[in-house]
Amino acid sequence: MSLNPNLTAERPTFVTHLECSMTGERYEADQLHGLSSVGRPLLVRYDLDGVRAMAPRAMIEARPTDLWRWRELLPVRRTADIVSLGEIETPLVPIPKSGGPNVLVKDEGRLPTGSFKARGLVMAVAMAKALGVTKIAMPTNGNAGAALAAYATRCGIETIVLCPEETPEVNVREIAAQGARVYRVNGQIDDCGAIVGRGAAEGRWFDFSTLKEPYRIEGKKTMGLELAAQFRWKLPQAIFYPTGGGTGLIGMWKAFAEMETLGWIGPERPKMFAVQASGCAPIVRAFEAGEEHAERWEDAATVAAGIRVPKAVGDFLILRAVRESGGTAMAVGDPAILKAVDDCARQDGLLMCPEGGATLAAYREALRTGLVDEDDRVVLFNCATGLKYPMPEAGIALDRHGEIDLGGL
Ligand SMILES: *Cc1c(COP(=O)(O)O)cnc(C)c1O
Question: What band does 1 get if pLDDT is binned at 50, 70 and 90?
Answer without folding.
Answer: confident
